[in-house]
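USER:
I would value a second opinion on how I read folds in token form. Give me a protein, with the fold worked out from its sequence. Write it directly below this note and I will take it from there.

ASSISTANT:
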Amino acid sequence: MLGQVYLCVAFRAYHTEGNVTISGKDYRCRRGEYVGSQEALSQMVGLSGTMFRKYVSRLCEMGLLEMESLHRGSRIRVVHYDYLSGYYAVSPSVPVSAGTESGCSLSEAESQWMQGGRSLELDEQRFSEKGGRV
């Protein structure tokens, strides 16, 4: 169900900038954000509002979403939306190999990591960059 909530938010996120009106108040909405009622989204996935908010909170804790409460609504941002939608070829959070000018060439370890595989080399590098913290 967690994945369904994430996909619902990701698919309902706006792909261009614009304005959204909630209860007579205008909000600026950027690419990769959903501005509106969580109740509407919860109905789309067939959950109660309480369960939907619980899953959104969990996705925020996991770093996949960011949420801001608005008057009679919410702003939910999909983290790395541009990368997920194919707008960027390389995620901004994945380091580009040294010596590559365009960022098109990735090391084998980086490619494996981006495809969900485990790369001990990158894990050790990230561990040491964070001063031994995960």
About this structure: The chain is about 40% helix and 20% strand. The helical segments are 2-12, 38-45, 49-61, 81-84, 108-114, 120-129.
